[in-house]
């Protein structure tokens, strides 16, 4: 008789467990799923009960997908610190060997106060297994090439090989690029020289900055809603504000973090799932992008490191055009406030968010397509961009506007409009961890997503009174009356005004209907 006690117990990897859970979610009967994967009903029930743990591990990417056991390390804080360091190094394509990891583990253990910790080969193997890390031998030639940076040969190789494979199954409508940029949102023209080249790692200027994430497709037909990251979770200027032309998040440095980027990715993935679409998303490998969640409808393609200046469409003129439009709007605000004798020239965060979003939506489709073509990702024949499309955006009138403001605000002669536009191009947009920051994160549970205090970084403008819907309708009527006295108003302006009027009328009508119904029910 066979001894049942000798039957080897089967272990499942995290990836296999998630496949079982997904099969049940797809609508299959539990009995059929158990037979398909060769498991007992009790094992299936255990997987379903522990699904929250599996999903958390996948979302955090803290264990490799082939990992079969989720037991914590003996020195869990050392393990977390070493893995946090490894992710930063890996994101920068820096060569790492097993001996380097062991030396770093000893160093971090010493900083954490562990004198008896030994970074043995056995510890290294267990560390690799826990996190699904494969350490490959790299010849000296490859190592030198990585350390010296990637040149034009790598760009040509990517154009000729990898990108062709990536885009083969996607139309230009479904190929996207996402990237972040920093913005000194309160920067005035006369302070351009002081801001130029500032990385803004902290200090007073950190209160005057935002980080904005933009995403658009290769055909220029779809620009996603921007994500703006500020310092203040509940700024005074956003009090009673329930709708914004962007998504807003906050942390103490106004940086993009892994958690914020992954949250944004999951939201995009959910939208694509509802729309039954599959898209390709091209991104760089900055530290906020290096540990992605599990995605169903998004295939992520990484641009080669050190080549984003020539391969990333958003970096080839799209973000620059957005900043040109934003700074132009800012100049108009400054000129208008000076004409009306207002003392406050700076904008608050709410005004800045509105202007950044407006600038983003105003970037023309021809500009977007041209930048994708410049990156070599889509062929020139896909569009019919003529000579007029190649004209600078916005129009030359911006230079005249700059000249007027520069004289009024005493801007030095050596500063021009392009200096004003590019003053914040060198801002840090994501966090690079140092050893001390790694330790702080494991010892004190410090969270880089923790936002600053309520009013940090805001212009000291008085709180605006709440506007009623009746006042809003009256303002639209006044605006319509004003436009009727102007000559040559485009039909599109009247169309937009009609859209606003219709929205407000629907809202006030629904409010009146609801209140009447409530009054009727109360009298019964």
UniProtKB/TrEMBL annotation:
Q: Does the keyword DNA-binding apply?
A: yes
First and last residue of the signal peptide:
none
User: Which PROSITE patterns does the record associate with it?
Assistant: HTH_CENPB, HTH_PSQ
Residue limits of the HTH psq-type domain? 3-54
Localization recorded for this chain is: Nucleus
Q: Mind telling me which GO cellular component terms the entry cites? A: nucleus
Chief site of localization: nucleus
Q: Which InterPro entries match?
A: CenT-Element_Derived, DDE_SF_endonuclease_dom, Homeodomain-like_sf, HTH_CenpB_DNA-bd_dom, HTH_Psq
> SUPFAM superfamilies, from UniProt?
Homeodomain-like
The record's DNA-binding region positions are 30-50
Locate the compositionally biased regions of type Acidic residues: 446-458
* Keyword list, A-Z: DNA-binding, Nucleus
Disordered: annotated span: 445-465
For whether the record's keyword set contains DNA-binding, the answer is yes
Q: Which GO terms describe its molecular function?
A: DNA binding
Using the record's annotation, list all stretches that form the HTH CENPB-type domain: 66-137
Q: Which PANTHER family match?
A: TIGGER TRANSPOSABLE ELEMENT-DERIVED PROTEIN 6 (PTHR19303:SF52), TRANSPOSON (PTHR19303)
Instruction: From the Swiss-Prot or TrEMBL record, give the protein name.
Output: Tigger transposable element derived 6
């Amino acid at each position: 008789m066979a001894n049942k006690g000798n039957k080897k117990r089967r272990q499942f990897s995290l990836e296999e467990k998630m496949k079982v859970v997904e099969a049940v979610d797809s609508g299959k009967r539990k009995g059929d799923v158990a037979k398909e994967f060769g498991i007992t009903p009790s094992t299936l029930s255990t997987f379903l009960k522990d699904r929250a743990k599996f999903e958390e591990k996948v979302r955090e990417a803290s264990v490799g997908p082939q990992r079969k056991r989720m037991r914590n390390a003996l020195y869990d804080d050392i393990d977390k610190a070493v893995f946090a360091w490894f992710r930063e190094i890996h994101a920068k394509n820096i060569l790492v060997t097993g001996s380097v990891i062991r030396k770093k583990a000893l160093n971090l253990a010493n900083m954490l106060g562990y004198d008896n910790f030994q970074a043995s080969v056995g510890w290294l193997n267990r560390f690799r297994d826990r996190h699904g890390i494969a350490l490959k031998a790299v010849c000296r030639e490859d190592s030198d090439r990585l350390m010296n940076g990637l040149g034009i040969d790598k760009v040509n190789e990517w154009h000729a090989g990898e990108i062709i494979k990536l885009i083969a199954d996607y139309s230009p409508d479904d190929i996207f690029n996402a990237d972040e940029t920093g913005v000194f949102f309160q920067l005035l023209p006369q302070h351009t020289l002081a801001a130029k080249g500032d990385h803004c790692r902290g200090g007073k200027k950190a209160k005057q900055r935002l980080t904005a994430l933009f995403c658009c497709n290769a055909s220029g037909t779809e620009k996603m809603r921007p994500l703006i990251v500020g310092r203040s979770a509940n700024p005074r200027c956003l009090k009673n504000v329930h709708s914004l032309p962007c998504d807003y998040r906050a942390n103490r440095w106004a940086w993009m973090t892994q958690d914020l980027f992954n949250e944004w990715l999951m939201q995009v993935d959910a939208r694509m799932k509802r729309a039954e679409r599959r898209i390709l998303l091209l991104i760089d490998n900055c530290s906020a992008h290096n540990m992605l969640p599990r995605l169903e409808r998004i295939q992520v393609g990484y641009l080669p490191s050190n080549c984003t200046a020539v391969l990333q469409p958003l970096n080839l003129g799209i973000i620059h055009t957005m900043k040109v439009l934003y700074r132009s709007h800012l100049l108009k605000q400054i000129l208008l406030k000076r004409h009306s004798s207002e003392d406050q020239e700076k904008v608050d965060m709410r005004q800045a968010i509105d202007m950044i979003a407006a600038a983003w939506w105003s970037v023309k489709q021809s500009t977007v397509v041209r930048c994708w073509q410049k990156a070599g990702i889509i062929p020139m024949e896909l569009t019919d961009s003529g000579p007029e499309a190649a004209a600078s955006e916005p129009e030359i009138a911006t230079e005249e506007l700059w000249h007027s403001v520069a004289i009024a605000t005493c801007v030095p002669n050596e500063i021009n409009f392009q200096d004003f536009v590019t003053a914040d191009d060198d801002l840090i947009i994501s966090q690079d961890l140092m050893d001390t920051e790694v330790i702080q994160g494991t010892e004190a549970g410090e969270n880089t997503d923790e936002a600053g205090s309520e009013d940090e970084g805001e212009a000291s403008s008085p709180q605006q009174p709440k506007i009623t819907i009746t006042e809003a309708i009256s303002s639209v009527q006044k605006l319509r009356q004003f436009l009727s006295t102007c000559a040559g108003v485009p039909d599109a302006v009247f169309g937009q005004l009609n859209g606003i009027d219709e929205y407000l009328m629907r809202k006030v009508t629904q409010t009146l209907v609801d209140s009447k119904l409530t009054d009727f029910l109360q009298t019964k």
